[in-house]
Amino acid sequence: MKSIRKKVLSGILVGIMSGALLAGCSSSGGDSSKQSSGTKGKTVKFVSIWNESTGVGKVITDLTNEYKKDHPNFNLEMEVVQQTDLDQKLNVLAASNDLPDLFVSQSNSQLLQFVKAGQIIDIDTSLPSAKEALLPATVTGVNNILGTDKLYALPTENNIEGIWYNKKIFQDNNIKVPTTLDELMAACQKLKDKGIQPMALAGKEKWPITRQIANIAMRKAGVNVIADANSGKVSYTDPAFVEAAKMVQEMGTKGYFGEGVTTIDYNVANDSFLNGKAAMYYMGSWATRDLNDDAKNTLGKDGIGFFNFPSVNGGKGSQEDYLMNFGTLLAFSKDKFDDQTADWAKYIASNFGDYSMNKLGNITGFKLNKTTGDIPVYTKMVTDEMKKVKNSGLWMEYNFDQKTSDLNQNNSQLLLLGKMTPEDYCKQLDDAVKTSLKK
């Protein structure tokens, strides 16, 4: 699997910063849809990890309410499931050939299984207006992640990942933004010695732990190391991974992530940082939805900064390499897809980028037709940071099967707590990947 290259990233940036792009809100596309479809009754079922008032759930709910003004008989029925239960839920539905009209997928390997089984639509053919609403570079990126030539899912975001930091805590403790991993570790120890939690981490979610490992390995061995390891070109027992695992374990056992880190979920970690209880917070640029929210962010519009994961002395990676993703993906059931669904989906896709930016300050892979007012402070910070990106790396689980993903994430908690050696962690992961590749 190849990484998303500079030309992809530059295309994303051009699209993000454009004031007006190509198509109008709902006028383009060659879908077999009809405006009159709203005169008929239709209920679309959506399996989501967000409720109607948060994240992508809010975007789709609010846009659906706008759509219903001209299509009063159209309804959206949302079923919210926990992230930890989502994959199993979709597997059960797929086994009975009952995938919902629209669903969110957090497992690329699972989604690819649905593609191979012919259970989800080919967006290129069945919903071309949605593809046209995306930035071309985003289409390339999603196809690269899934390893397909056609588009089978829509992105929900366009993210870089890195470390947010509390400017006042850094200034009060005479800490400069770390540019090397040694400097980051020294800053963490200095803060810990002063009774300040160095970093908030949502260890209960597990993936933030493996992201730390991936970033360090990427800095040591280069931007393609995860893709190479997942394809069998490189072993997960390579020194880059073992050393990365050792470093993350050290951060955990020294208390840099605080007490009870594996019991801390996303919301608790997020609130801890935004309320000034931790100096740093590893998270993706999707965090801007809360950073831009004055009710949630007590640190203010100039209280938080951002830096990419630090480099490693003598490493092959660069701070111009970023871990990047397109959020959880949205897919449509092939059996349930009809003209009415297409008409609604066309409206959602055509307005998704504008609504996300103007209402929530979120960057997506969708084109902007028009923006209203100034770009929120922290969203602008991310778009400026994206100008520094030259290469993009992938996260460890991007194409793992469910068994390998579960093993890796469960073991990452044991590693962080010092209950598994870095060598055992890497060996078990390497064995699982090799077994998966033989299937």
From TrEMBL:
> What protein name is recorded for this chain?
ABC-type sugar transport system, periplasmic component
Q: Which organism is it from?
A: Clostridium saccharoperbutylacetonicum N1-4(HMT)
Signal peptide stretch: 1-23
Supply the InterPro entries for this chain. Answer: Bact_solute-bd_prot1, SBP
Name the family the entry cites.
Answer: Belongs to the bacterial solute-binding protein 1 family.
| Keywords assigned | Signal, Sugar transport, Transport
A matching Pfam family: SBP_bac_1
Xref: SUPFAM superfamilies: Periplasmic binding protein-like II
